[in-house]
Amino acid sequence: VERLTPVNFDVMSYDVKENTVLITGAAFDDVNPHEKGLYAADLTSLKMRELIAPYTYEIGAAKLLCCDKALVQMKKMGSNRYACGDLCSVDLCNGAIVILHGMDFSVGSVGVTTDAALDSGKSVVVENGLMHFIMTEYDSCYVRTCTADGVISEKLTEDGAVTSIDVKNGHTVMVAMRGDRLPELYELNEKGEEVCLTCFNKDLGGELCVSSPEFLTYTGSDGFDIHGFVMKPAGYEEGKKYPVILNIHGGPRGVFGSVFHHEMQLWANSGYFVIYCNPRGSDGRGEKFANLYGKYGDWDYVNIMEFTDVCLDRYPAMDEQRMGVTGGSYGGYMTNWIIGKTDRFKAACAQRSISNWITYEGTGDISYWFNEGEHGATIENAKALWDISPMKFADKAKTPTLFIHSDQDYRCFMGEGITMYTVLKMNGVDARLVLFKGENHNLSRNGRPRSRVRRMEEIVNWMDKYLKDGEKNA
Q: What is the pTM of this model?
């Protein structure tokens, strides 16, 4: 074993072709640069050359086309935080950069969120000088290709979510989610058609009731078309009223699609309408739609509330008096924000949430650059951070709220939930705090099975307590 990078070097990504290694990362002694450098290393000499210095570009996907050329998506430091960057050719001999294609989407982005895929694999692969990559566009993740000259293909795959790909000797194999099915392996045949190679979950269809998401769109008061989905409760009967759970994704540049989502299927099977949308700030719609710079809790909140109103109007079976709201990470932040702004929800569950952007700056693993990049403010401008913090409005909250955090979550530290919980309890609002020992920010996606089961029990029991009390009394 030979060490190739310095001891204090943080490797973000690497790619190997023959004797050359392309490395994205940076050496640091104090502050880890958000804008990493790009390096080429030789496996014979074990020497590494700097192609792009840290603090100059924000680097995304970086892959070797051959031993002396790479395709890299990057944007200059100081560019709009929400821009995806240009797809560039980088000469490994002299570091020359040639812009090939302006991009409004991220190369290698698997933005569609689900808790039904264990983890992701490769999202960018180079084979015979052709780059294959996943790209999130609207509510799906597709595969496209790009040539050395920057010519990008049409979509090569169907609607849904491709979560990882691999390419070898002309064969493209991928993990994908299609319709109401859980992840399976697919191959693209010579005609470009998807062929399902596995059927790991074939027996589940006959045992479980699966609610197919119904697509819903409306034009918001901000002029953007907002996409969302509605899942009817299992055993749905016309003329009957049902409680509702509004779910908010994380990110905020996550994306909800029509793919199988375990927790929402469980809620539907527990007798709930489940509604969810992609408000401003979501991925898949380009820079203008994603831009929430300094505007958290503004148009995103308006989009979500308008979406809720549209759902109630189009689905009369939804009981407006029995609505709950939940979400994780950014969705947890928005849940905290909502309960301080409106009393229309009778129950809430804020998961791995943020409540105070001032305290967050010193406790999150990415917070030292996140606040400035997302909000245009740091603790030196504490008022700007406080104005978009749910804690500012927590004393107005009246919604019974469950707070779920993990004690090893360093993205959204558990103190964020503890502070909201404390304020609600001191103001006489029913609240419950559940901390999972040994779990992290990914509890809902790849936590220990027993923890994931307990988490779902906590959420369903909390919603049932406040949204089904009328049913029990009847």
A: 0.95
